[in-house]
Specification:
- There is one protein chain.
- This protein is 51% helix and 9% strand.
- It starts with 17 loop residues before the first strand and ends with a helix.
- It is mainly alpha-helical and 349 residues long.
- Strands 4-3-5 form a three-stranded mixed sheet. A two-stranded parallel ribbon has the order 1-2.
- Helix 3 runs parallel beside helix 8 (191-203), helix 5 (106-127) packs parallel to helix 7 (166-186) and helix 5 (106-127) crosses helix 9.
- It has two domains: 54-224, Isoleucyl-tRNA Synthetase, Domain 1, CATH 1.10.730; 236-313, hypothetical protein PF0899 fold (2-Layer Sandwich).
Amino acid sequence: MGTRGRAPFKEVLTHGFILDSDGNAMSKSKGNVVSPQKLISKMGADNLRLWISSEDYRNDITTSDESLKRIADTYRLIRNTLRFQISNLFDFDETENAVELTELHPLDKWALHKTAELVNLVTAAYEAYEFHKVYQLCNKFCSVTLSATYHDILKDRLYTLGTVSKDRRSAQSVIKIICDTLKRLLAPILVFTADEAHAYLQTNEDFCPHSVHLESWPVIPTDWFHPTENQDIDKIFSARDEVNEKLESLRVIKEIGQSLDAVVLISGNKTNDTFQLLQKYEQYLPELFIVSQVTLKSDDQKNGLLTISAHHAEGDRCPRCWRWLNELKTTEDHGVICSRCEEAIYKTH
C-alpha cells in the first residue's frame, strides 16, 4: 500500500478451520490430526478434492467417516455417469454419425438444454469461488437429470434400436456433447478422473497427448437451448411421477415386475393443457414412461384433472426389447421378436 498505493492482491478469500468429528480444532498435542496423505492413500486424491469442494470453506469444516463415505458414493456416481456415456459411444464417429441439433429427438433436446443451463450455473459458481455449489450442481445433474431420468430412458434406444437408427444416433450425439462438457466442468476438482475420461473419449486409452487441462472452458452455442422441448418434457415428467406411483402400486401387489410389463391409460378433456401436451408427444410416451404402451382417451366428461390408470400388458413379451405386444414375428435367425426389433437387426442403412 505504501509503495504502490494499492493492495498487493486483487481478491481475498477467508476460510475456517478443519475440525475433528467432535468439532474440536486439530492439534498434534490432542492427537486428533487427520493426515491428508492417509486420506489420499485410503480414498484417493480425487475423492479428497471432491470432499473439500463439497464443503463451504467460509465456515469451519467438520470431518467424519460418514461425510467421507457420502463423498465416496458421490464420486462413484459421477465416475459411473462418465463411464456409461463413454461406453455407449464405442461405435460413434462424430464426423459421420452426429445428428443435427435441430433434428434431435425431443428428449435429447431437453437433455442438451439442461446441460447448457448447468454450464451457466457452474461457471457462475466457479467465478464466485463457491465450489460447494459446483459440487451440488454436478451431483444433482448426474444423479437426477442423467442417471435417474435421461440415461434410464435412453437404455431402450441405445440397446435395442439398430446401429444406423437416427434416434440412436441422436442419443449418442447428445451423450458425446454432455460427456465432453461434464469432464471439463469437473476438471478443476476431479483432476485425474476428468483427464482419464478425456483420454478414453478421445483415444479409448488410459492416456492421450492432449490433456483435458489444456482444453478451453465450455462455451454454449445458441442451438443448445431448446426452451420449448425443455418446458414440454418437464411437464410430461410431472405426469410421469403419477404414472410411476401407479406402477409402484402394481409392483406391490406383484401384478407387474418391471415397468415394461405395464400399459398406461390416460383420460382427459381435450381442452386440458396437459392432455393436449401428451397428445403432441404421444408417439414418445411409451419411451418416456418406460412402459410397453400408452393410450390417450379424450373424455369430454372430464374436468381439469387427468385420470391415469395402469395394468399388466396383454399379448407376448419380445425377448429382445422386453416390450409386450399383441403380435410378434418369427425370424429365421433370431426366433420370435417384435417388428421393431426385426427392423433393428436386419436394416443396414
